[in-house]
Structures are given as C-alpha cells and as structure tokens.
Amino acid sequence: MILPIVAYGDPVLRKVGKEINADYPELDKLIADMKETMYNASGVGLAAPQIGKDIRLFVIDASPFAKDEDLEEEEKEVLKDFNKVFINAKIVEEEGEEWVFNEGCLSIPDVREDVYRKEQITIEYQDENFKKHTETLNGLAARVFQHEYDHIEGILFTDKLSSLKKRLIKKKLENISKGKIRAEYRMRFPKLKK
C-alpha cells in the first residue's frame, strides 16, 4: 500500500526514533508498504518518520545510482545490489574526508542542496529478520545511509546547510509545511496552528 509521505514541518520528522524488536506489529507489511511508497515516489531511501512513525527503521534501494556513468565500476557494483532494510541502525565510526553531493528528500520536495558528509562509515544494524550486521560503507552507499540515518535521529539534510543557504530556502520550506507544493506523490502536511 502506498502511504502518504510526511512533509517538512511535521513534528514527527524531529523525533529521535525508538528501537523496535521482532514483536513490532505487522512489521513485514510496514516494510513492504515503505518500499512500495519509496518506489512510487522515485526515492532511493525512506525512513519510518517520513511515513509518520517515530521508530528506528528505514529502507534503501540505491540501485538507480548504479546507472550513473560518472561512477567507477567498483562503486556501481556495490550500488546495484544495495537494497536493504535497516532496523535499530547506528553509526559506529565515520572516517575520511568530507565530500559534497547534491541531496534531496521526499519530505522536502523541490529542494536540492549540496551537503558535506564523511566518505566512509562503519555501521551496525539488524535486518528484517533481526539478524545483526556490521558493515563498512563508502561513497554513495555511505551517503544514502547517512541521510536516512539522520531521519531516525530527527535530523534533516537542510539542518546541515550554512545559515545563508537556510535563509535562501526558508520561504520554500514554509510553503512545503503549508501544503503549497505539488509533488508527484501523495503527501501528508502538518496541521498548523491557526
């Protein structure tokens, strides 16, 4: 089932997600719905807060990046199979130089900005069967993970922008939170106080 994506301004996007266990109700259905919602919106990742749930869960399918001609073959190989469910994830270590990439977010349509992130991360997480994993990610795989991970920490990519950039996009963000936006997918806008 395709779920509405929560728009910028909704308080759920600012909550630190709660850990879940195998008893979480209808988890398989939730994961399937999140993937369907992500694909419907042409996204490469979707975190539970973006569908209104403050839990530590996100899905990633970075395979569309594998078609990027500018990437090295080794990175394309990693990205074409980078389709995973992350439960109770945490970043253990961040390493390397910070590098810039133009990011967007399904909760913040029509806003794209350059964001700096570390090039390599070591992560721990559980998959949909609650099997524990420890992995090291580099490049775009690391970046997509960091972006989705920020969502379960209550952080948005716009928080990482300079104060000048934030001022430049302030009106766009206000319009999104007021529902004055046309997205190609269903959205849920915050109920603003009158």
Question: What does it look like?
Answer:
The protein has 194 residues and is of the alpha+beta class. The chain has a single domain (5-176), classed as Peptide Deformylase (Alpha-Beta Complex), CATH 3.90.45. The chain has helices spanning 27-40, 73-80, 139-152, 163-177, and strands at 5-6, 45-47, 57-61, 83-105, 108-126, 132-138, 187-188.
Quickly give the CATH architecture: Alpha-Beta Complex
Q: Characterize the main sheet.
A: 5 strands, antiparallel
Helix and strand run? EHEEHEEEHHE
Helix content: 25-40%
CATH homologous superfamily identity: Peptide deformylase
Low-confidence stretches: none
Keywords summarizing the entry:
4 helices; Peptide Deformylase; alpha+beta; five-stranded antiparallel beta sheet; about 190 residues; globular; two-stranded parallel ribbon
Topology:
Elements: E1 5-6, H1 27-40, E2 45-47, E3 57-61, H2 73-80, E4 83-105, E5 108-126, E6 132-138, H3 139-152, H4 163-177, E7 187-188
Parallel strand pairs: 1-7
Antiparallel strand pairs: 2-3, 3-4, 4-5, 5-6
Characterize this entry briefly.
This protein has 194 residues and is α+β, with helices and mostly antiparallel strands. It contains four helices and seven strands; from the N terminus they run E-H-E-E-H-E-E-E-H-H-E.
